[in-house]
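Two quick folds needed for the group meeting slides. Do the first one here.
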Amino acid sequence: MKKILCVLLAAALLCAAACALAQTPATFALGVVITQEGRSPSPIDYTVRLAAQDGAPMPAGQVGGTYDVTLNGPGEVHFPAITYDHVGTYTYTVSQLKGDDKHCEYDPSVYTLTVYVLNKADFSGFDITAVFTDSEGGPKPDNNLFGNIYTPDPENGSITPTGVADHWPKYLAGSAVLFAVSGVLATRLRRREETLEDVVLTEDDEHDAP
């Protein structure tokens, strides 16, 4: 009986191993959302770094266990897909590199990304679950990770959604007032000249009279 059980156990292990070898690798492409408060005159480059912990799989082209992607302006940026061919728990850190725009306050947050790779029920492949946690270990429910703040020079004003600095309306209003005053002065001057012309003509008529 023991022999039979051993044979059955060995057969089950071999079957499981064969199924594992036949499994199709799974891929996961990390996406990160970057936001920006305040409008800049031109889009700012934001660079996000993915760093592997304990030899976790990385996208092709990684350098020294890290991979950087850059996004021109706020929005969502994606890393190349990572391939997983073994069950396991894989850990990464996700951070934003500090840029060189002196008016931008770059979000210094660092997140832990944990990727869980599990067998499908029929051993046909893998199920992947990715979870973000912040520096305090709290869960991050989505991939909206980095919020940056752009503050322009006070003398330049901030840029409105139409692409115009917010101090321009003041300048335009001042210009309008100047134009209005100039128009009034020009009208008064013209009327004065017309009045003087009428006086001269009247005097000439009196001199010409018999």
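Then this one, please, same format:
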Amino acid sequence: MAAKALLSTKHTLLAHIIPMRRCNLACGYCNEYDKVSEPVPLTEMKRRIDKLASFGTSLIVISGGEPMLHPHIFEIISHIRSHNMLCGLISNGYYMTRENIAKLNAAKLDYLQISIDNVTPDEVSQKSLKVLAPRYLRYLSEDAEFHININSVIGGGIKNPEDALTVAEKAVELGFSTSLGIIHDGSGQLKPLSDREMAIYRQLKKVGKSGWTRFNGFQDDLAEGKPHEWRCRAGARYLYICEDGLVHYCSQQRGYPAVPLEKYTMEDVRREFYTEKPCASFCTIACVQQIAYFDNWRAPQTSQNRPSLEGDRIGAA
């Protein structure tokens, strides 16, 4: 994937695809779920995956909501892998039974990411170490044939920022890689860290230096409230496909370009590759930042065709 990314800019590197918006949890800071949505039909999901394959996409990450609620999640993963694309899954971990882990192994899942917000459930989040560690994380440690990353979270109303350090240390103990997420507002922008949170952040940077963590240098600027200079390639190297099949910049900038994937073309991809994004300077969306590392050194962008930061966004808080 890395070699292909460096050799050519004429393909998509990473696409996030949403097979359903429904979730079994209701985290207080999240704007990416509901309680009523129906799953996208399997035939439609396969069409979308085929279209992404036609863009030369290297990696598709399935997200939600909670994607493990989709009745055909294992077939979706298998279809991605049938195109020789890598497949990742973002889950809250509540459905990681031994039976489901065996099915994920059989489907050839490449990696799983679980974000854990605290040690003990509270009114903000139930994505908790106390719930997940005794069974689900242990099952994954013992049975999973795919890579596992545990994302600890800081900021955004999490009561005990020290919990993030406990989560990261447990992940390392279980043999998983770790990463750190700074909770953002409804447009993906930085929510400044308090002095207490900054102290924990500095400690977290020293834990589990593996996985994508080593590519998250942009967080140093953001944690200190500084703008980060980079070139966002959303809409080109990175695509976000919502449950309605529309292409968006990312999960927090839903509403532009909002073109149906079936009508999205390589001309759209090339335009967005060279289009400067007004939300970039204080963006905390790690997956988009990470993909941009392949291209930050080349192809300057302009503001031509650039949307307004205050434009019509579905996902704005």
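Slide caption for protein two: Strands lie at 14-17, 59-62, 86-91, 111-116, 147-154, 177-182, 238-241, 246-248, 257-260.
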